[in-house]
Design a protein that fits this description.
Blueprint: H1 3-9, E1 14-18, H2 20-34, H3 39-47, H4 49-57, H5 73-81, H6 96-103, H7 112-119, E2 120-122, H8 124-147, H9 151-154, E3 166-172, H10 174-184, E4 189-191, H11 200-218, E5 221-227
Antiparallel strand pairs: 1-5, 2-4, 3-5
């Protein structure tokens, strides 16, 4: 399949500015509520005034009552945790061209992060000398961002089947973004010799790092999102 065909048929992957700290608390509370236990959700709303206020601005009269919220889990997660500008619009990270280059990668399902995960390797000159922890941290963070909200990690697909086909693949907190950007700047990883796209790993690293730097400057986390 050529690059043009891939670009016209795969989903567009968006790296959104995201409150990953809140999302870390919200996800298990939503999962408990979906199983019939609403107490963790009520407690969370009571403890997080920012969550309570966000839901009220979106038309939810009683945010602590999960049963009154009609949104699916993916929509709820995105609506409550996406970072907004002062005028209420989603905060954009990076330049348009960078977002486009990252958003629809010309290989496989169009996910730049999946390609990166598949074709990076430890740089043995570093990892064999106390650098393995850095490489493992890179892979762990990438897995969390690319797949942390998917069935393979959560045991269900509730965050992958949102309104309009929205899928939340995973997210990172602001601190995790900072650590990942720092680790990617190390020499603990290298590209596989057999990667199918010449320079593909380097290209992903370039655009992804630019977006991470933009998030770091704004002191926000990130989420990976697509629409079917």
């Amino acid at each position: 399949m050529d690059e043009l065909t891939v670009a016209s048929t795969t989903a567009f992957h968006t790296l959104d500015a995201f409150n990953g700290g809140l999302a870390t608390e919200l996800v298990p509370a939503v999962e408990s509520a979906m199983e019939g236990d609403h107490e963790p959700w009520s407690n969370l709303v009571g403890q997080r005034s920012d969550l309570n206020e966000r839901l009220k601005t979106q038309g939810i009269d009683d945010p602590s009552a999960y049963s009154t919220i009609q949104w699916d889990p993916a929509t709820l997660l995105f609506t409550t945790c996406v970072e907004l500008t002062s005028d209420g619009r989603p905060l954009q990270l990076g330049e348009t061209l960078t977002r486009e280059r990252f958003g629809r990668f010309p290989h496989g399902d169009g996910s730049a992060l999946d390609y990166f995960l598949e074709y990076i390797r430890p740089n043995r000159s570093i990892t064999d000398n106390d650098g393995q922890d850095v490489y493992d941290a890179i892979v762990g963070s990438l897995e969390q961002l690319a797949h942390g909200c998917e069935e393979q990690h959560r045991g269900h697909s509730r965050f992958e089947d949102g309104f309009g086909g929205m899928q939340i693949h995973g997210f990172l907190s602001a601190q995790a973004v900072k650590e990942l950007r720092k680790n990617l700047a190390s020499r603990a990883w290298t590209a596989s010799y057999d990667e199918p796209l010449d320079g593909g790993v380097a290209d992903v690293a370039k655009h992804f790092t630019t977006l991470l730097k933009a998030a770091e400057r704004r002191r926000v986390g990130v989420a990976l999102r697509t629409h079917r």
